[in-house]
Amino acid sequence: MVTNKISVLCTRAISDTLVLKASAQNIAIDVVPFIETDIIRSTEIGAQVKHLAQKKITAIFTSINAVEAVVSQLTHIPDWTICCLGGMTKDIIIDFFGESKIAITAKNASALADKIVVANPTNEAVFFCGDQRLDELPKILRMHYIEVKELIVYKTIQTPVYIEKNYDGIIFFSPSAVHSFFSVNTLPTTVVLFSIGKTTAATISTYCVNLVITSEWPGKEQMVDVVINYFK
């Protein structure tokens, strides 16, 4: 007897390897991105990144997109002390900067901010971020009298899609994707929603009362593992 596969929508691009991993566990994942990100390639931002590359700063990253945006404008590996989230963000930083540059890692922005407060960096702190970045990290730092410069290096664009298919679960990686999805869609209360981090989960709860399963770690693989474990 053939068992019907669990059907899950992922609102952000993931690798074919992860789709196949889920498929092997009887879970069919459809990938439909609900946001796009564009690197800001202005002369002003490029000049600021290059200027900072000549200085010893504490560089803060909470997203893959910010790392990729900054790296695309660097001509050499700067002497930065880096604080970042784990998962893919950390992996990309290691690929370009080397693991020795990473001083602090954490699983979410608030935990990262708390660790930075304890470390109390003396170098200028620069938070490389997107235009829809959350207030959490800079707010915590400023509450503890740590000045942080915010440099917006990419922008997020919502790309909502009306979904006709019925799904057993939906994966969200950011509040922006949640806003984009619910701008044109509604859901039966039986659909299980998966989110990365408490902020994304809280955003989901403003739109519906569905069960939300939260992954504390920011990696895509960890999220797929959470989905697999839930539907076992």
UniProtKB/TrEMBL annotation:
InterPro entries: 4pyrrol_syn_uPrphyn_synt_sf, 4pyrrol_synth_uPrphyn_synth, UROS/Hem4. It holds the Pfam family HEM4. It comes from the Bacteria. One of its GO terms (biological process) is uroporphyrinogen III biosynthetic process. Residues 24-224 form the Tetrapyrrole biosynthesis uroporphyrinogen III synthase domain. GO terms for molecular function: uroporphyrinogen-III synthase activity. GO terms for cellular component: cytosol. This is Tetrapyrrole biosynthesis uroporphyrinogen III synthase domain-containing protein. It comes from Limnovirga soli.
